[in-house]
Design brief:
Largest sheet: 2 strands, antiparallel
Radius of gyration: 22 Å
Helix content: over 70%
Structural class: mainly alpha
Low-confidence stretches: 432-485
Shape: globular
Strand content: under 5%
Number of helices: 18
Number of domains: 1
């Protein structure tokens, strides 16, 4: 009995120790919590909108926000993914320059991407012609820029193992956009333009507070400025482009599909599709969160890739299966929150998304594997291939199956992606082959600094060596198939 009592007393200490030691699980958990909280607050936002606005207005606004999300991804230019691998072992000067490059580069390129989006959308479909209105165009331009900076800051928090900051930022944004929407409704506003404005206004206030408060609490000496930003981007341009192409292919489907549904069918059909996608985002976020933190985790530690991947697979299984069953069983009831029309037309789409969450996890993790192995070109090709199959297939399938055709096309794309994973993994002896992650090759020799709760030295590969490799982080004990032949 004494040993049982002792074990019970030690249980809290063991839980805390495990929490601190398992960075992958801890940070993935925080990202998933952030996504869940954003999703719940997003559900509140859209539930309020669907009851106060017409279905056509909801469909048009959701398509516009999806286009802004895609434009924001275009503007990130690989800055976030590159930061995941640079920041963990960067000295203070490199760290500050990288963060400034994320903020300045993201904001500037985001403005350009927003301008292009505002100019192009009216020509995509007559149903999006309201983007010609000055107030809508301004919201799109600044909304794209702010969204770009906010997303890139999440990469910084992930790299620094402070993913709980993502929860704080997301919760603030969610509460603000719901509050602003409620204020507009109290003022009697009932159009898609102000619906977009509420979303953009919440994002703007949140991002400003993140820059002022959260970044400064990371414990690294930092001053905002433009010095060194151009040099940083020029130095890492090849790496930025490779990572950017991979990320761009990943978000083409969720960002462009609602716009495609509007253009092919109607704003009403887009609303039915978007709400189902919004619910499914809880599932899709699990593997995406683990995959992103997996890349950051491998940039800190020298350990066999097989061990880390097994931990990641177990973590995904534990986190993914419960919500899969919940949405499959109670999804129609949840959709009923938005109205009977969504429960009737969106449930079948939601079921397809639930099934496809499993192959989506496989492709997400394999993207991180390819990046760590020094093959971001393969990751980009795989994501672009899946996006092409999904978008082109959706255009044809929607002509036959209606809005459900978009979901079937995405399922087909994931099946193609898993097929590629199987072939490539077999050709390269599989991703679980022992690989030493050379994260210690990142930053120039210098004193150690406390990162998280560990002291780590910071040796770094030269810029010429990284440019020769064509990647930011090639595992030194791994040889590509092309070099073996």
């Amino acid at each position: 009995m004494n040993w049982r009592a002792s074990s019970l007393r030690r249980l809290p200490e063991m839980v805390v120790a495990t929490y601190r030691r398992n960075h992958l699980a801890r940070n993935s958990g925080w990202v998933i919590i952030a996504t869940g909280m954003n999703g719940l607050l997003g559900l509140g936002f859209w539930a309020e909108a669907t009851h106060a606005f017409s279905t056509a207005n909801v469909g048009s606004a959701s398509a516009m926000l999806a286009a802004m999300t895609f434009a924001s991804t275009m503007a990130m230019m690989g800055l976030g993914t590159t930061a995941l691998q640079i920041l963990p072992r960067a000295d203070d000067e490199t760290w500050s320059t990288a963060v400034n490059s994320v903020v300045v580069g993201g904001a500037t390129i985001g403005l350009v991407a927003g301008l292009v989006t505002a100019a192009v959308l009216p020509h995509v479909s007559p149903r999006l012609s309201f983007a010609n209105q000055p107030q809508v165009a301004v919201s799109v331009v600044f909304g794209t820029s702010v969204l770009t900076v906010a997303t890139l800051l999440d990469y910084v928090f992930t790299a620094e193992r402070r993913a709980h900051y993502i929860v704080i930022r997301g919760a603030t944004f969610g509460v603000l956009k719901v509050a602003l929407l409620s204020l507009l409704l109290l003022l009697g506003v009932r159009n898609a333009t102000l619906l977009i404005a509420a979303w953009v206004g919440g994002s703007l206030i949140t991002s400003g507070s993140t820059l002022v408060w959260q970044v400064r609490r990371l414990g690294r000496p930092h001053r905002y400025g433009v010095a060194g930003v151009t040099t940083y981007i020029r130095k890492w341009l090849k790496i930025l482009i490779l990572h950017h192409m991979t990320s761009l292919g990943d978000v083409m489907i969720p960002s462009l599909m609602p716009v495609l549904v509007v253009a092919r069918l109607s704003s009403v059909a887009s609303a039915h599709f978007y709400i189902a996608w919004l619910l499914a985002s809880f599932l899709l976020a699990v593997s995406a969160a683990v995959a992103g933190n997996l890349l950051a985790d491998l940039s800190y530690n020298d350990e066999p890739m097989a061990r880390t991947l097994r931990r990641a697979a177990r973590l995904i299984a534990v986190l993914l299966l419960p919500p899969v069953f919940v949405l499959a069983i109670f999804g129609r009831s949840v959709l009923g929150i938005f109205g009977s029309t969504y429960a009737a037309h969106s449930y079948g789409i939601l079921l397809l998304f639930v099934v496809v969450a499993v192959p989506d996890a496989v492709t997400n993790i394999y993207v991180s594997v390819l990046r760590v192995k020094g093959e971001p070109h393969k990751a980009a090709a795989m994501n672009f291939g899946m996006a092409t199959v999904a978008l082109v297939g959706a255009w044809f399938f929607m002509g036959v199956f209606g809005v459900a055709g978009a979901a079937w096309a995405w399922a087909l794309a994931q099946a193609v992606g898993c097929g590629y994973v199987a072939v490539d993994a077999h050709a390269t002896r599989g991703p679980l082959a022992p690989v030493s992650i050379g994260a210690s090759r990142w930053v120039s020799d210098g004193p150690t600094a406390k990162l998280g709760d560990q002291e780590r030295a910071r040796p770094m590969a030269t810029v010429d060596e990284m440019h020769e490799n064509g990647t930011v982080d090639r595992a030194p004990n791994w040889t590509p198939v092309s070099e073996k032949q």
